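sry for the spam today, last one i promise. struct tokens for design, 249 residues
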């Protein structure tokens, strides 16, 4: 079911109920906007092969749609093409918000770092032999890397690690003709959020940011397209904040 254009840019309060893991956009109110109705491509990624992790929902789904409309081939593997031009490391795990630090147990911490950080190392390792010169890697961090919320500190810590990973990897790979950059979103209305916070937090989600609302996933996609395209060919090792006006640092 497509997003209702009338709800574009809608501000809290939201009548959203909290969800269990994994969250689903079908039960979200308002429904997330992935850009199906309004994203128009200009062929900026024509004939490029892109691997996007976490593309089933949230930011990843919006990025996949935008890349496809810009002419990119979206593949989970390189079997069909034998090469990669773009890798978007977006998949992430965020557990439910806790009241006390002690509630972040060992199993959860290990899971969060395994999904959010370790996976990036392995994906880049496996992808590099298939990369062509002129390619780009884009990682998804978060405003949480700069303004960590103690109730999801395991998640925030992984996002800080991703910023460091991006900056270090960019220095290594630019010599091979591969740029590495990062997008740091602020609050985004996704199923990841719906599964993480209670009803009261969801009701006012994003209200404390300068624009007084969360972003829709479709509003993040252009940042990824920019970093993937030749328009950003002199941009490397950067963190592009899409935060609705909240400074990253």
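last one done:
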């Amino acid at each position: 079911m497509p997003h209702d254009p009338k709800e574009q840019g809608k501000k809290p309060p939201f009548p959203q109920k909290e969800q269990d893991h994994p969250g689903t956009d079908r039960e979200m109110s308002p429904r997330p906007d992935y850009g199906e109705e309004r994203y128009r491509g200009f062929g900026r990624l024509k004939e490029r092969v892109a691997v996007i992790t976490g593309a089933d929902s949230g930011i990843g789904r919006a990025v996949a749609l935008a890349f496809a409309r810009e002419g990119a081939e979206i593949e989970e593997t390189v079997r069909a093409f034998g090469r990669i031009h773009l890798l978007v490391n977006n998949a992430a795990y965020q557990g439910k918000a806790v009241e006390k630090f002690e509630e972040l147990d060992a199993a959860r911490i290990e899971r969060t770092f395994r999904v959010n950080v370790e996976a990036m190392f392995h994906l880049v390792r496996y992808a590099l032999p298939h990369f062509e010169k002129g390619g780009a890697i884009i990682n998804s961090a978060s405003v949480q890397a700069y303004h960590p919320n103690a109730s999801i500190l395991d998640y925030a810590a992984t996002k800080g690690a991703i910023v460091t990973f991006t900056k270090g990897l960019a220095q290594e790979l630019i010599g091979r003709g591969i740029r590495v950059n990062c997008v740091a979103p602020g609050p985004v209305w996704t199923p990841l959020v719906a599964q993480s916070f209670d009803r009261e937090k969801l009701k006012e989600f994003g209200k404390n940011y300068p624009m007084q609302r969360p972003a829709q996933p479709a509003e993040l996609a252009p940042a990824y397209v920019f970093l993937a395209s030749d328009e950003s060919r002199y941009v490397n090792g950067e963190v592009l904040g899409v935060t609705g006006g909240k400074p990253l640092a």
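The longest strand covers residues 131-140. ok im logging off now
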